[in-house]
Amino acid sequence: GAVVSQHPSRVICKSGTSVKIECRSLDFQATTMFWYRQFPKKSLMLMATSNEGSKATYEQGVEKDKFLINHASLTLSTLTVTSAHPEDSSFYICSARDEGQGYGYTFGSGTRLTVV
Amino acid sequence: QKEVEQNSGPLSVPEGAIASLNCTYSDRGSQSFFWYRQYSGKSPELIMFIYSNGDKEDGRFTAQLNKASQYVSLLIRDSQPSDSATYLCAVYNQGGKLIFGQGTELSVKP
Q1: Looking at CA atoms only, how far is residue B14 from chain A in angstroms?
Q2: Residue-wise pLDDT tens digits, B48-97
Q3: How far is A9 from chain B, CA to nearest CA, in Å?
Q4: A-chain residues within 8 Å CB-CB of B97?
Q5: CB distance B37 to B45 below 8 Å
Q6: Closest by Cα among A116, A97, A99, A114 to A10
Q7: Which of A52, A97, A99, B99 makes a 20 to 30 Å CA pair with A28?
Q8: Tens digits of residue pLDDT in A64-80
């Protein structure tokens, strides 16, 4: 099946700084990628849909100026958490549709962000 | 009403037993249904998908779908301790978004 690579796997940053998370499709081209956020013991919440060559589509309640998404190529989407605060600490996961798996999503390995 | 609902558990079964995980969804127009397994601290991995009413078997896993009742389930036969994880049900809604339930934590006791 499709492979989605995400890094870094863990990052600790100071409050007020920005963090960039990269998501790459390794063996296929992904015109669309999806960014999720997961708090401990909670489900995955879709944050935004990343579209290659165009603006991302954000879910209701997600601040687009805080969570900047760039999908500059068919294999790379990035999420930048700007001016991070402790409440942004979470598990961020990217994904892409996998035609070989019934169009279910294949997920990257996730990024554990801790803001101190 | 949540779009996708699961019992959060934990569900505890002895090794070798059948684990039954259930999920209901609200969008009657949904056509595609998925089960993911998520180990603690890891990202979800797809284990099964089902589109048609009835059963679909893959090894020790069986997915069951009943669109009239808006219900999808996952059975795990001969449960092993390595099956201990959180199982997430996911459904494509008519808006084309994959929506996840809150997950059911399964614990298989040796």
Answers
A1: 23
A2: 999 999 999 999 999 999 999 999 999 999 999 999 999 999 998 877 78
A3: 10
A4: 46, 49
A5: yes
A6: A114
A7: B99
A8: 999 999 998 889 999 99
